[in-house]
Design goal:
With 314 residues, this protein is mostly helical. It has three domains: 91 residues, no CATH class; 97 residues, no CATH class; 108 residues, no CATH class. The protein has a two-stranded antiparallel sheet. The chain is globular and about 50 Å long. The N terminus is likely disordered.
């Protein structure tokens, strides 16, 4: 299959999705309360499209629900689950970059908005929280299937490290300029350790009760995204890229399709049919419920190599 890494132009469906996402901080569905994950992803999609001032509403909401310790719960109340801190931190870190500061000032002047970039999100506290949040280690066992002594990030504090929260935390730390920090390095080692021998990864384990788990597109995509730019000579990375290339298609669900394409694009393996697949996925999503998290991820995937998740974490 021919491959392309060309940036994506702003087509009508992307414009429509961005208009919807710009309206308000997002819940997982439009009738639900605002939530950190879809709001952070919506902010990133707007920033990647050059609509930095429009993202300020989302960043201000994230700043408002950030705790003094620097973390953010999935919803406005604090609990032990603060994994969206990484996604919010990535969005705030990108918006605080100098080029976006300039874009924000010009855009804000045009539409008579005032405010400050990153919307008072405390990046210092967020980075300290991320560096201090550790997954619980477990004794290694052949039946366990992976190195339980590697420390990444959990979904819930006090539990074992898992693939997606570790990948997002690695992405956030890279965006903060902490690529060489020991926590980032160990997170990268964990992500590689959890890859399956035949390529791809599951959500955290490689083996359960003696049975090797099957790869899943979403965690494989975000893992490869976090591993982009790493000089790692491990055959499982190439096998994982092959797994995504052979698995995603026009029929793949929007979130998995988006993460799969982001992972492939970050490694210069974007399928030539990506734009057609994304538009078809958008049309299906718009007819069903136009879920904000799906819209945001589809837009991010459509931004290709210009997507902030690729441009500022590699």
């Amino acid at each position: 299959m021919p491959l392309t890494t060309a940036p994506i132009t702003l087509t009508s469906w992307i414009s429509a999705a961005l208009e919807r996402l710009a309206s308000t901080p997002c819940g997982y569905h439009w009738a639900e309360p605002s939530a950190a994950e879809p709001t952070a992803l919506a902010a990133l999609s707007l920033i990647g499209a050059g609509r930095v001032a429009a993202a300020q509403t989302h960043l201000k909401w994230l700043a408002a629900v950030q705790t003094p310790e620097g973390c953010i719960a999935p919803f406005a109340e604090l609990n032990q689950s603060a994994w969206p801190t990484a996604q919010a931190t990535f969005a705030a870190a990108v918006s605080a970059r100098r080029e976006f500061q300039r874009n924000f000032t010009a855009e804000a002047a045009k539409i008579n908005r005032i405010g400050s970039n990153a919307a008072c999100f405390n990046l210092s506290q967020a980075s300290q929280w991320l560096l201090g949040a550790v997954g619980k280690t477990v004794e290694n066992s052949p039946e366990f299937g992976h190195n339980g002594q590697l420390v990444g990030w959990p979904w819930v504090l006090g539990t074992h490290s898992w693939q997606e929260p570790t990948a997002w935390s690695v992405l956030a730390l890279k965006a903060l300029g902490l690529t060489d920090h020991p926590r980032t390095r160990e997170g990268v080692r964990l992500l590689v350790d959890r890859l399956l021998s035949t390529g791809g990864c599951n959500f955290g384990n490689t083996v359960v009760l003696g049975q090797k788990l099957r790869p899943q597109v979403e965690p494989t995509g975000v893992t490869l995204l976090a591993l982009a730019g790493e000089q790692i000579n491990d055959p499982r990375i190439e096998l994982s890229l092959q797994y995504l290339s052979e698995t995603i298609s026009a029929e793949t669900t929007p979130i998995s399709l988006s993460y799969g394409l982001l992972g492939l694009t970050a490694h210069n393996r974007r399928p030539a049919a990506a734009e057609q697949w994304l538009e078809a996925a958008y049309q299906r999503t718009a007819k069903r419920d136009a879920a904000p998290i799906s819209l945001a991820l589809l837009v991010l995937a459509a931004q290709g190599i210009e997507c902030p998740l690729i441009k500022y974490a590699v």
